[in-house]
Amino acid sequence: MSLESWAELPLPGDDPAATGPAPGGPADAPALPAAVPASPAAGAPAPSPSAAGTAPSSSPAIHTVELAKRYRRTVALRGLSMTVRRGEVFGFLGPNGAGKTTTVKLLLGLARPTGGEALVLGAPAGDVETRRRIGYLPELFRYQHWLTAREVLTLHARLLQLPRRERFAEDALTTVGLATRADDKVASFSKGMQQRLGLAVALLGEPDLVVLDEPTSALDPVGRHEVRGIVRDLRQRGTTVFLNTHLLEEAEQVCDRVTVIDHGRAVATGTLEELLGARASVRLRVRGLPDGWWHAFASLGTWSAEGGWLRLVGAPPDAVPELVAAVVARGGRVEAVVPEHQTLEDRFLELLGAR
Amino acid sequence: MSAGGGTLRPTAAIAALTVREALRRKLVTAFLGITVALVVLSAWGFDRLSHSRSLSPGELAASLPQALVLFMFMFSFVVALSASTISSPAISAEIESGVLQSLVTRPLHRAQILLGKWLGLAAVLAAYAAAVCALEFAVVDAVSGFTPPDPAGAFGYLLAEGLVLLTVGLVLSTRLSALATGVVAVALFGAAWLAGVVGALGADFHVAALREVDSVARYVLPTDGLWHGTIYALEPRTIVANAIGHASPFYASSPPSWPYLVWCGVWVCAALVGALVLFERREL
Questions:
Q1: Mean pLDDT throughout A92-107?
Q2: Please, is A313 exposed, middle or buried when counting C-beta atoms within 10 Å of its C-beta (0-12, 13-18, 19+)?
Q3: Scanning every residue of chain A, which has its alpha carbon at the shortest distance from the alpha carbon of B284?
Q4: Out of A199, A209, A213, B203, which residue is the most buried by the measure of CB atoms under 10 Å away?
């Protein structure tokens, strides 16, 4: 089935059984409970030929299948399959050179894929009319330095053919905290202020999808905090945010779901809970039971003994109270139960370490 | 909104932005400053020439137009330099700086960006060429009393020559850096002019092969062919009739033919299409 057929398909459901690692990912890619399938289920409704052009709001905000990009001998992206749902803040994580910015360029039509397909807001990536509903903050944010901030925004409002351009420009400048510098030349702006201006340009006209490529790279902690607030506001408004970042803390704070890519492939996709929960562990100190008692609970996860402690990795959170009750029922004395939360950084490094 | 309006508005927005950039970055001011200095120099020269006691009235009548052609040649070089200077960073430099990325992700086609830039730059060049011609012709008339027979034609050919080079710059700018584009465009302009000189020598010495060089070069890059249109528009018909400047790179015995002018128009359109193809294929 061609990618266009996805434009009118319903969003992947929440049925965990229907989920799995994205096809095209490595064979050993972690199977995350809510990972999104990259190919439609058998028996899916036939697509309308005009699916891409109509861009129904029920289509995913972004959907890629086996998206690939090769620059001569360098493979930047090797079969990326992912789905970004409408209205979510989606984190796109990966180390330098993983293919994050290449993916953004392909999604926006700045570069052409050498394989696979991509739909953005239900239309083929790069579709001119669809760009009206997309806001984009480039990683390399540069604007006409001989214009004022207000003029930059008015220009973009004009290109978007927005009514009341001045009003839209004023609102966007206020949102990013540049209202008092509206009539200053961009040339006089610091790097951080230029990034704020770029964010204002991306927010102009209330787009359905905002693509932010490293949006806080030039900002101080206060600026980063403000940008996170803006991203949360966008989510409240129902705007989809595609956040390309290598700042894991940022992703942890604002993203509903994330995809981790490495070497041009998705190595994990899911909500943060799913991503971290799958590897959550709990440490127990139990007395009064014979050695090896835990073998009776092997199905809960992976057990290991460390000194006087036992570590259980991968158990569902709601299984721990039942485990404790079972231990007590068998005559054991539970001296300590210590849940261990993996940070996104730990998980990230773990994922990349397995490449 | 009409489809036409939808197509033209972004193009007009880019054209207006381009004009504003030229004004804000003081390109126009810089070139006008140079022009005023050169016009003052020419005023002094024409004043000396017209008051020379060593020239007979006939010699003066012949030398004034030729002096104007020489000065206008200098201005044609300034116009050519302006055209290549303003067009060379139009695409490549904006890609390198990242400015263009924010524009091409807006709902407009790359063709609209390219056409908008061409129109904006053409407007700047037209204003500059008009200022050059108006200033120079007015000063020469005031100082020496000589008025070229076809000042509007001279302006038109000078502008057309500039537009050809502007288009060359835009084509090159889709692939080369601003510096490389500027160097190559000026070098091509010089080569085309040199081909005209070679052709004139070929005509003077009856060497068909040299004449052919000029004939071919005029079609490959029509700047020199159009420059000869400027020359013809500046020459009094008595000079043409007497063939006073025969076989000189600063003499034209006839204006460019209509088919040749049509070719020039086709050339510019084809080059713009080529620029668009290159720009469309360029990954940002």
A1: 89
A2: middle
A3: A110
A4: A199
> Which residues make Cβ contacts (< 8 Å) with residue B225, sequence separation at least 6?
B196, B218, B219, B256, B260, B264
- Residues B55 and A231: their CA atoms lie apart, in Å, by 81
Q: What DSSP letter does each residue of A304-331 carry, written as one string? A: EEETTEEEEES--TTHHHHHHHHHHHTT
**Cα separation of B218 and B199, whole Å?**
10
The verdict on B98 touching A (C-beta cutoff 8 Å) is yes
Count the residues in chain B.
284
3-class secondary-structure state, position A262:
strand
**Count of the separate structural domains present in chain B:** 1
Torsion A146-A149-A154-A155 (CA) sign: positive
Q: Find out whether A168 and A157 touch, Cβ atoms under 8 Å.
A: yes
Q: How many residues does chain A have?
A: 355
Residues of A within 8 A of B109 (CB-CB) are 128
ipTM over 0.85: no
Map tokens 């500046």 to a residue. Answer: B234
Backbone angles phi, psi at A19, to 5 degrees: -110, 165
User: Which domain does B255 fall in, by range?
Assistant: 2-280
Q: How far is CA B257 from CA B66, B163, B180, B230, B234, in A?
A: 22, 18, 33, 13, 17
Tell me the whole-structure pTM to 2 decimals.
0.79
Judged by average pLDDT, the poorest of B148-152, B175-179, B204-208, B212-216 is: B204-208
Closest Cα to residue A301, out of A323, A272, A274? Answer: A323
Contact between chains at A128 and B10 (C-beta distance less than 8 A): no
Q: Is the pLDDT of residue B214 over 90?
A: no
Tell me whether B52 touches chain A (CB under 8 Å).
no
